[in-house]
Amino acid sequence: MCDFKSIVGLFQSCLVPRRRRTTTTLKLDQISITEILQGLKNGHFSSEELVRTYIKRIEQVNLIVHAVSEVNRNAIEIAREKDEERSRGSARGSLHGVPILIKNLFFTTDGLKTTFGCTGFLEAIPSIEATTVIKLREEGAIILGIANGSQWANNRCTPGWSAVGGQCLGIYFKDQHPKGSSSGSAVGTALGLCAAALGSETSGSVILPAQRSAIVGIKPTVGMTSRYGMYLASDSQDTVGVLARSVKDAALILTVIADMQKSLSHFSTNPHSLSILSDIISYTITTPAEEASTRGYAFLESCLQAGKSYSHNSDEYINSKAEREYMGRQISKLLDKFECDMILLPTCVAVEPADVGGNPVVSVPMGYYPAGTEVTIQNGMVDFGPGIPVAVSFIGKRWDDEKLIVAANAYENATLWREKGKMLVECNVELSIAIPI
Fold it and tell me: Tell me, what CATH number does 108's domain have?
């Protein structure tokens, strides 16, 4: 005879309670790298879903801001590989599955176009990959694409403009000046088109765009990051920098790429044979897409003439290098004299002393120009105006980067200025996820 109660009891014992789930939306212009990594680890979303969402965001707003000059055509496939590695317990490192943009000055060997913004290099194929890019890949990062930036690293051309990527624009005022040359890296990070981005700085090219996009920019001590495999505007001042939405995120990226330690020769093919300055001048003047007559490239000819007059052994060059070294020493002496750890300056005036001296700088949002601010124009774009962000820079002695990061992080957490601004450009493509509760 069938024992009905026994059957019911057996049936109930086999039931597994269903976990309730709640749906939430991730704001990709606010989410931190730590939150991305936690979401990936917990299976709330995949790297593939994240990359697809970033690409949709780029497609929605890039024709307005011109922050990204190229999306990696293999990004989705790479993201899928990262998901498979994670599922096998083989996550590579601290950035596994995190999508990063890189400035248009870094060589890669995965088919991305390293052009420096110049159309003459659209078909050139690099023979090496930048050390910083290799380090990102080794830690599992996904190179999502190339960020637009000032052509030739802002060497006297229109800031934020390149013949390849067009004119990058800021996001807090109509036709806002983005500052340069890491313009696209800053705007793309602020808009949530990536988790973070690599930039580079000769003179303000990381911290100034970071300021105008209300994000964090770290320009480390010159020599802390390898420059192998990137275009150099200045052998003595250039350094790789990081742009992120928080000090913590920027510090995480810097930790990955830090490496105590030439450019056009690193192409395996170079269809237009551009290798010396006279080649570049000829190509720029004769190629309409380069807009030579309107983009300030008359300086190239003067550079060529100056190169003939002033060698690396000239008194002028030697004196200039001595002045640069003197500036770095003076910052250290000033801090020692007054028993201080760092100097705080508005980012807009922090550029020259730190860049000339090779000192580290961390720029953090400090507020916004108030209503009624007079609108001023530079390079045909709005440089100052209501609601445009301002920032404070922490400057320290060479190799005191960690002290600056700790102080900048404390200031950021105490003020939270980034949360108080209003972006004019907005993106409504977000990542919706279901989380068990």
Answer: 3.90.1300.10
Antiparallel, parallel or unpaired: β 142-147 and 99-103: parallel
Active-site entry in 162, 185, 205, 263: 205
Would residue 275 show up in a list of annotated catalytic residues for this protein? no
The count of structural domains within the chain is 1
Selecting among 69, 162, 181, 182, the annotated active-site residue is 181
First to last CA, the chain: 43
Residue 182 lies in a domain: yes
Examine the residue annotation and report whether 174 is marked as an active-site residue of this protein: no
The residues that bridge with 216 in the sheet, in sequence order, are 244
> Is 381 inside any structural domain?
yes
Q: Please give the C-alpha separations between residue 179 and each of 64, 154, 242, 298, 409, in angstroms, as whole numbers.
A: 16, 9, 16, 21, 24
Domain hosting residue 354, numbered range: 21-275+310-436
Choose the catalytic residue: 82, 103, 135, 397.
103
Q: Which helix (H) or strand (E) holds 345?
A: strand 343-346
Q: Using CA atoms, how far apart are residues 354 and 356, in angstroms rounded to an integer?
A: 6
pLDDT digits (tens, 9 = 90+) for 120-132: 999 999 999 999 9
Q: Is residue 227's pLDDT more than 80? A: yes
Q: Is there a catalytic annotation at residue 205?
A: yes
The string of pLDDT tens digits covering residues 163-200 is 999 999 999 999 999 998 999 999 999 999 999 999 99
**pTM to 2 decimals?**
0.84
- The most confident of the ranges 115-119, 279-283, 431-435 is 115-119
CB 176 within 8 A of CB 296: no
